[in-house]
Structures are given as C-alpha cells and as structure tokens.
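INFO batch 0412 | record 1 of 1 | parsing
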Amino acid sequence: MLDHIGIAVSDYDKSKTFFDAALKPLNISLMMEVQGWAGYGRERSPQFWFGQGPEVQKPMHLAFAAENREQVRQFYAAAMAAGAKDNGPPGIREHYHANYYGAFVIGPDGHNIEAVCHAPEA
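INFO prediction complete | emitting tokens
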C-alpha cells in the first residue's frame, strides 16, 4: 500500500548509527543518501527515509517486517545494543493474532520501532 515513508530526526548521525544496527538483522540497509536524507530498504528502492529536520514528528509507531522470528530476536538485541529503550521484548502478541511475533523498542527520537513476523515458528 505504501511506496515509502520519511520522517524528520533530531540527530542524523545518531539515527543513522541506530538504524544501521537495528535494521541489519532484518536485511534492511542504507541504500542511498540524497540531500541530507538516508534511504533504507531491501533489494529494490528504499522505502524508509529519514533526514534531520527543524521539527521532529511526535512519536510514531514504525513496524518493520521480519522474515522469521529469529530476525525479530536479533533486531531487538541489536537495537538495545545501539541504545534503544525496551518497549516490549520479543514474543507472541495473541491479541493481534495467534502468530503475531513482535519486539518493540523506543528509538533515538522517541519513536516506537517494531520488528514483526506473522509466520508460525519454523
């Protein structure tokens, strides 16, 4: 449904360091930098963008798709090591559906960053 999304951040370098580490386990990486904006994605065009802006959005929820539950666990560990705050460790969230496996962290600008897998355990 969405082609891409972009958010303003308060510290470009800090955010780049954080997202480089947190998204790596999900096979999401920096694909390009254009006019002070960083674009992250998998294989094709970047779908998640951020750049330093004069006004950072109020905290948002950003959920990134994981291919399996191990990637969710690795995302959580990498994000925490990169300075995130815990907002829900890896686990099943049955209130969404029986196979909703997610982990939640608070990133550098207060955004709720999630990795989620909808597939059952392999």
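INFO post-check: DSSP finds two helices and nine strands in the chain.
INFO record closed
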